[in-house]
């Protein structure tokens, strides 16, 4: 059975070497599956005799339920203990993967993806808090860097793994491959993860429902922003979502331990770090979506070449994340992340204004700059959020970190769609310019944290 240590100073070196891979294996599983299904959507539509618009819900259902569940699961982790919620997530995700692999219809597949999204949120939301329990406080940056490394690896591997599987078998194996990985992750986590104490708090059901309604309305509304003829519907959904959000905030103000981490957002450094995270993930999404169109339509690169040219970005993070983690444990994290965002903005600008006859090498080294900049931003920024919260609010800090990333990516996707609707093929260039501006603004906000910390000191 897992030890029941107080975990005030983390686990010992030997126990940590066993527990950490157990945690990160679950993270790898969830992130790999979040990206791997995109590649197979045309094949799924053909095999299940469904139209493309309906098939997109294989991806959207996962992302929507994931976003809606983050904050309630963060609160649940604080109440029941992070280990228990994480184990439920791994077990449920593995079982839902079997449901996806056996799906006889699109409706069945979408329902199984909803279950996957819920259980994936259990894992992703809880992992930063679990790592904080496992590592001693002075190694917080190293803990977050391992998480960043795992996410980068799974993101980089997703399209390649999907391509190999679809070459050798049908799309069902994309989900069936999760079964052995999930069983290993479940067994290792159950055996080696330390017990984490729960806290006395009530589960805020009305708050959870208001949170779900807010995110559902806003995310679906943002999804309609770039669709011609749906601007009125999109505006109505977003306005309704903001209205529900106002009710949610008023409801949460009276709670001692709110579902929304309002107590953490009152800390200037944490609030600025969250805003910086939203801006940076918006910039990343704008670039990830806009760059393939730019490469294929403007620079006449093939689909395969486009994939290879973008790969250096997530791949270099694998090497940068551990270095950034070690440096953030020794130097000021706010300055490091501001430096990273400055490099990120330079890389994005160099891609936005590529020379007309740019070579593959010229594109690749610019991608490397973006990866270096993003890597030096991501780990120090997340360290500030996790380590800046009280230890008993680690679950809320995890939720804040996850929801900032989710909101940033959702807003980024909506802005890309709107830019393509407004500018047509020139929308890809507009997306890269917008990404550059957002990264630069994020760097400015990041520097404000230095002043905030100085005042607090």
UniProtKB/TrEMBL annotation:
Topology within the bilayer: Multi-pass membrane protein
Pfam families: MFS_1
Keyword Transport: yes
Location of this chain's protein in the cell: Membrane
Alphabetical UniProt keywords: Membrane, Transmembrane, Transmembrane helix, Transport
Transmembrane segments: 23-45, 57-76, 85-104, 110-131, 143-167, 173-193, 205-225, 231-249, 269-289, 304-324, 336-356, 362-379, 400-423, 429-448
Major facilitator superfamily (MFS) profile domain sequence ranges: 19-454
Listed InterPro entries: MFS, MFS_dom, MFS_trans_sf
PANTHER family: MAJOR FACILITATOR SUPERFAMILY MULTIDRUG TRANSPORTER MFSC
Protein name as catalogued: Major facilitator superfamily (MFS) profile domain-containing protein
Organism, scientific name: Pandoraea oxalativorans
